[in-house]
Amino acid sequence: MFLRQLEPRTARTTAEVANFALWPIAILTVLNRVFIKAVNGYITDDFRPVYNASLAFLNHRAVYGENYNTTDPHYLYPPGGTLLISPLAVIDPEKSRWCFIIVNALAILLAWYLLLKLFNFTLDTVAAPALLLAMFSSETVTNTLVFTNINGCLFLMMVAFLHLILQRKDLWAGAALGLTIAVKGPLLAPLLLIPLVRGQWKVFITALGIPVALNLLAWPFIVDYKQFWTHTLPYLSESRDYFNSAIVGNGAYYGVADWLVWTIRLTLAAMVAITLWLLYRYYRDDEVFFVCTSAGIMITTVLLLGPLGQMYYSMFLFPLLMTVVLRNSVMRNWPAWVAVFGFMSYDKWLSDRWQHIGRELEYLRTTFGWALLLIVAFCVLGDRYLAAKREGRLQPGTSLDPAWMHPEWSPEDSEPAVAARTKAGAAY
């Protein structure tokens, strides 16, 4: 039966044409990213410091003694994360790196499948190859594999958390998020706001218990445990002016006045607060839309307004981008996809002919992309709120969606169609 699916045949429908075209391109792109680009590697090597720290941990040597004045990748995982990733150093560095690439690639593929299920798509639909191609063509997936970091595994845990939170499997949802907190600390911790407002208190037992337990377990085995708190943690709370697409990072790089940086950050923070309030107030019963949109807004806020935001962290925004298939998605407009191009595109804008302009476009596109995404979400929901207020549709328990966004709506129900029928009836 499987071989019959591979039999070449002429497509009879538009959907078959799209499937026949997209599947080979998507699969070959995956193979290229995993076995060619990732294995080739790049100057930036996120794996080496992780492997060295794991080796030091297994041999009872100091882990947290790096010189943070250099621009090389640094080892920044907390003790609990060190305990989790320490098996990497059981084999030699080259084979370990290859295994790590494969593990992250498989994690991304599993997350892709779970995303499809989350939005009720099967592997037979056009969405499957389209999403696969989009993910592995993006900068975030490509550089996660090329630089060889753990983001693919964290992305899988995040998507699993979204699935489990929607299924009300609270302890398992907390466990998935707790593992990400144990490794990357506060990056995905704001997602705890979702179970908080949904009243899913059990999530916090495992989400906070797992990282605490892992840190306590690692304590006796790390010889410089205190160095993490006195040396590494202060560095994590600082903003740097290199490889940093957060507002504070680019502000420091370009010498922007502190008052202006704070004004921009506070303005965007206020917009995010209003956006999240509108989502909670009017959309919390539309569970998939609420959970995925809120998660994307919060993660974008952390990346843009926090001390450190790197382009390949945009992987965690894929659930928000997938909401485009929903009628009431905030992604159904062209400015949203200008924003997506800014932080997802693998294209480089460095120009030999227009060096100054090309450099600014390349360095700022991620920051502008994240900011534009937050502005778009604020404007879309704000516009719906004002329209609903004008039309008297702000009753408790109702959404802000206009009539045409409801599943039962048809083009015949539109105002022009109703007016035309009324006019025709009067003339008759």
TrEMBL record:
Residue intervals passing through the bilayer: 98-115, 121-138, 145-166, 172-196, 203-222, 259-280, 287-305, 363-381
Domain of life: Bacteria
Membrane topology category: Multi-pass membrane protein
Location, primary (coarse class): membrane
Subcellular location(s) per record: Cell membrane
Keywords: Cell membrane, Membrane, Transferase, Transmembrane, Transmembrane helix
Record GO terms (molecular function): hexosyltransferase activity
GO cellular component: plasma membrane
Pfam families attached to this UniProt entry: GT87
Region spans: Disordered: 405-428
Family designation: Belongs to the glycosyltransferase 87 family.
Protein name: DUF2029 domain-containing protein
